[in-house]
C-alpha cells in the first residue's frame, strides 16, 4: 500500500480548522455575487494569485476581507457544507472547528445566524457521513478582553452547540495574559479551552496559555521547541499540539517543508496532531498536510498511524466515541497489513 493510500484510508480527526479559512475562491465569488458585494479582485485566479504571504498578518488581512461577504445563515451553511463534503472524501471521521464570531457580529451579522448555519451543516454531515463534530468559538486577540467577554455572554445560551473556546488572530503583542478573565469565565461555564500560542509568538506565550489560561491543547506550539523545560512539561502532561504544516510553510513559520520540526516533536514524545488550519488559503486539507510531510521524508508509515491515533486521543469526545474511532483505525491498520 502506498503512503498516499495509507493517508487516504485511515480514519482521522481534525482539531485545528478555522471554518472561515475553508472559503474557496469560487464559493467566495458566488456568495459575494448573490449578496451584491464586490470583491476587490477581477477573478478567482486573481484572488488565488494574492495568496502570497510573508507572515501571519498578511494572511489575516485577506482572511478578514474574504469573510466580509458572509451575511445570511445559508452562506454559513454553504461554507461549512463544502468543508464537510471535502473531509468526508478524506476519511476525516471527527472534526472540531473554530469560528470567529467577532469577525461577523462586528459587521452586523447576528451571532445566531453564524452559529446556526455552521451547526446545521455539521449536523447534516453527521447524519449523512457519520462525522462527529465540535464547535469552538475563538476570540480575536487583536481586540480587547472586554469584547471577548461580551462575546462569551452572547455565547452562553448556546452551550448546546459550542464545546469550547479558543484564542486566535495576530499573536505577537497580544499575549494570553491579556485574556485571563474571559478564560476563567469560560472554564467556570464548562467550556473546553484552547489557544493559539507559539506560532509566531515566543515560548513564553505557550507558558502563559498553560499557566494563565489553563488550556487543554495548544494550537500550533512550534516555538515551544526553543525551550527544553517547556517541551518536557508538554511531554509530561501530554498536552496536545495541533500542528499545521502547510500553514507553517505558507506563513513562513518554516522556510521549507523539509525544515518542518515534526520529527523533532515526535521524537520528543510530544502529543502532536496534524491539521489544515485554513486550507483554502494554504493549499491543502488534512490529507495534503500528512502527504507534504511524507513526501519530504519527514514522517513514515508508523508516524502517520501515530499521528492519527494522537488525533483521537486529543479530541474533545467521550470515551465511547474515542474507543470506537481508535477501533476503526485498528481495522484500517490490519487491512493495510493484510493487503501488503
Ligand atoms: N486565524 C485563522 N488562522 C489563524 C492562524 N493560523 N493563526 C492565528 N489566527 C488565525
Ligand atoms: Zn489556526
Describe this structure in words.
The protein has 340 residues and is an alpha/beta fold. The chain has one domain: Alpha-Beta Barrel (TIM Barrel). The protein contains 17 helices and eight strands. The chain has helices at 3-9, 25-34, 44-49, 56-67, 73-89, 102-105, 111-129, 145-155, 180-188, 203-211, 228-236, 245-250, 262-268, 279-282, 286-295, 301-313, 319-339, and strands spanning 12-14, 92-99, 132-140, 164-168, 192-197, 217-220, 241-243, 272-274. The chain has an eight-stranded parallel β-sheet. Helix 1 (3-9) runs antiparallel to helix 15 (286-295), helix 5 packs parallel to helix 7 and helix 8 runs parallel beside helix 9 (180-188). It is globular, with a radius of gyration of 19 Å. The model has no long low-confidence stretch (mean pLDDT 97). It binds adenine and zinc ion (ZN). Adenine binds next to helix 4. Zinc ion binds at residues 16, 18, 168, 196, 219, 277.
